Amino acid sequence: MSSQSSSDYIIGLKMIQTNLYKIGGPILLCFGGISCLINIIIFSKKLLRKNPCSIYLTAFNIASFLFIYSSCLNGILSIGFDFDPSSSNLIYCRTRIYISFVSEFLTNYFLVLASIDHVRITSSNALTRNKSTCRLALISISIGTLICIPLQVHSIIFTQMIQFTPVRIICYFQQGAYFVFVSYYLSVKAVLVPLLLATLGSWTIKNINALQKVRSISTSLQHQTTTIASRSLSRSKDRQFLLLLLVDIAGFVCFSSFNAFFLMYQQITQYNTKIVEQVQLEQFIRYLCLFINYIPYFLNCYIHLFISKTFRSEVKQLLLFK
C-alpha cells in the first residue's frame, strides 16, 4: 500500500469513527438515559415491585444509568468531539473509571440474578419456586453491591494521567502488571457473562418446555404439581416479566459478544508485530465494538414497550400523570 493510499485509509477510518460517536453517540446517550429512567419508574411502582424480577430490573436500570453517564458519555466526548474532561483532572479521572467499573459489574450481576430468579420460578419443583421472593432479591442485591464497591477500589488506586503523545494526556490504567491484570479481567468478564446469561436463558426455556410436557401426565400427584407450576406461569404479569427478561438477555448476549470476540483477539495477537494500517483498523474495530456494546442499555425500554401490554399501559399512565 502506497504512503498516500495508506494515509487516506487511516484518515477515512478516523472520520467514520469520529462521526459514529459524534452523531450516534448523543442519540444513544439521550434515549438511553430516558430508557433507564422510564424502566426505573415503571418497575418500582407498587403494583410491579411485588415481583422479584421487577426488583432486579430496577437495580439493573439504576446501574445501567450510571454506566451510560460515566463510560458512554466520556467515550462520546473523547472520540466524537475530541474533548476528554478526565484528562485534565486526576480526581475526576479516577472517579469516572471507578464508577464505570462498579456500574458495569453491577449491571452484569443484576441481570444474572434476574436470570437465576427466572430459572427458579419456571422450575417444576415447588420448593425451588418458593425460593423466588422479594426478600431474597433485596438481600442478593444488597450483598452484591456491598461487595462490589470495595472490590473495585483498585481502579482508583492504579488509574493515572499518562502522556500518550507529546501534546495529549489521557486518563488510563497504570502500565505494567496492573494493565495486564485489567486486560485479562475485562476479556474474561466479556466472555463469561454472555455465556452465563445464555446458559441461564436456555435453562429457563428448557424448564418452560418441561412444564408443558408434564401437563400430559395423568396421575393425581403429578397433575397437582403441574397445576401449581402452570398457575405460576399463567399469570399475565409473570409471563410478561419472563418475556422481557429473555429479550433483555438475548440483546445483551448478542451485542456484547462483539466486544468479547475482539478482546479475545487482542489478547491472542498482543505480541504480534503490526503495521500502522492494521493498528488503526484494530482501533477502529475496538471503538465500533464499544459502541455496539452500549446499544442494549439504549434499547431496553423501547423493546419492552413493543412486547409487553402491561408495560405499555404503565408508561401510558406515567405520561398522562395518572
Q: How would you describe this protein?
A:
The structure is a single chain. This protein is mainly α. Strand 1 (159-165) and strand 2 (168-173) form a beta hairpin. Helix content is 80%, strand content 4%. Helix 1 (3-43) runs parallel beside helix 10. The chain has a two-stranded antiparallel sheet.
What is the topology, as strand order, of the major beta sheet?
Answer: 1-2
- Characterize the biggest β-sheet: 2 strands, antiparallel
Structural class: mainly alpha
Global mean pLDDT:
82
Q: Give the helix level as a range of percent.
A: over 70%
Order of helices and strands: HHHHHHEEHHHHH
Shape: globular
Number of helical segments with 4 or more residues: 11
Beta-strand segment tally:
2
Radius of gyration, taken over Cα atoms and rounded to an integer in Å: 23 Å
Low-confidence stretches: 218-234
Quote the beta fraction.
Answer: under 5%
The N- and C-terminal alpha carbons lie at a distance of: 64 Å
Helices and strands, with pairings:
Blueprint: H1 3-43, H2 52-80, H3 90-121, H4 126-130, H5 134-151, H6 154-157, E1 159-165, E2 168-173, H7 177-214, H8 220-234, H9 236-269, H10 276-307, H11 309-319
Helix pairs in contact: 1-2, 1-10, 2-3, 2-5, 3-5, 3-7, 3-9, 7-9, 9-10, 10-11
